[in-house]
Amino acid sequence: MHGKPGVILFAHGSRDPRWVEPFERLRDKLSAQRPDADVRLAFLELMTPNLADAVANMASQGTSEITLVPVFLGQGGHVRRDLPALADACRAAHPGLALHVSAAIGEDDKVLDALAEYCGRMIDGH
Question: Matching InterPro entries, A to Z (predicted)?
């Protein structure tokens, strides 16, 4: 394998520039935990880079393996329908690249446990 493994945190995007702040914090936390990986953000719409541009940029830097993590709580049409088509287009554009798409973060019990724990703290701390 050439270069660092790539990780793309794939989020929806918004017209409000402040919307991206927690995603940037997540990227920075993951980068700190995994200095061996190249961690990037990409967006479905309204923000740049989009997925195709992020993948192309990483591939041009020699990344041969990318894990794409959809940072979505719910599996709406965007994740179920749009994302597989976008991922397939990236694979077609970069035949030497291994692109793995994980389940959306909201599908994972440990993620939901952390959210439930936060909500419980809010009950006690209001």
Answer: CbiX-like (IPR002762), Sirohydro_Cobaltochel/CbiX (IPR050963)
